Amino acid sequence: MSDNAWRPSLLDPAPRPAANENDSGTWDRPHRRTRRHAPAKGPKLAIVHDFLSQAGGAERVVLELARMFPDAPIYTSFYAPDRTYPEFTATDIRTSRLQGRINPDRFRSAVLRYPGAFRSLELSKFDALVVSTSAFAHHVVHERAFVFWHTPPRFLYDTAAYDLPSWQARLAGPVLSYLRAGDQRAAKRHWSYAANSANTANRLRDVYGCNARVVHPPLWIDHLPPHLAPPPSRPRALVVSRLLPYKRIDLAVRACALAGIPLTVVGEGPEEARLRSQGGSDVQFLGRLDDSELAPLFADHSVVLVPGRQDFGYSTLEANYAGRPVVSVAEGGALETVIDGATGRLVEGTDQHRWAAVLREVHEREWEPEELRRTTEPFQAGAFRLAVRAWVSGL
Fold first, then answer.
1. Lowest CB count within 10 Å: 163, 197, 300, 375, which one?
2. Phi-psi region for residue 344, left (φ > 0), alpha (ψ -120 to 50) or beta?
């Protein structure tokens, strides 16, 4: 069903007045008025997310949804409290039959088990679901599910990004074909769709043939420096990312070496050993850090690098809020969050010499921290809440 068609409001049970023109320029269907008796209670909602075993932008979205809907429990395949944000301990988390059966260090190896685990969740007592997914949560069964997409499953539709050896790709082929078929069925049966960026919305249209409204994720600012620090006297680059092949952290390592700029890498992942072997004495790997540890890092670094294609571009906004310019690949969500020449630089392609030259350019000019922070205002939590309420309400 199209997002443009009117649906009964979930946040305000009052009936809709006669047809009028909505924000998208299409006409809403009229709703028959009925007699109202006692005030209706609010809808009973649940939040569903793939897995709570990481600390990234998707998990921040789930926490913001939990703040918006404090009575809504969070359903997920499995929960590893020590691997994700501590704020989840204050929420009502309900796990699937996979809890205790998944190794958080190898959770990707259980791909065949997640679809059935989500389908088996009993959610019929809820009036509606808000589903946060980039993998399997959309396999839940419910007649009214609002699905917020961070990306279509990358391992199903962008397998080249994982740079698998040819023999592994051949072995994975039949499994991926089976999973794609189930993924297509699951993705097309839900009530309404939203995407974290226009980039993701375009990919959803290509992969599933569905239309999704754009709702940008909320920029968390509590862990970022409240007072802007002047740029450090010596240039130093920062990368904050999961260490996966498609993140292209190796490009940052090579470009910084060519430019003669020290590099700090924050994050963990299967690429860590390979990246350490490539990096010299000017590359520091700090592993996974708590959000509270990022503020002094932004203050101590002069530029933030985003060499890999992002679905939204979260780290570029964090950098700008902290008063630092970014150098990002000119692809994906960064095209929506980086203003080339004003909040940083966008670089076409992956040529390390071009990246090194842009790094030198960035350090040859002065950037105004207050102006960089000001550009992030449209992406902060208040805008996200308004957009989600409009989406879920059908307003």
1. 163
2. left
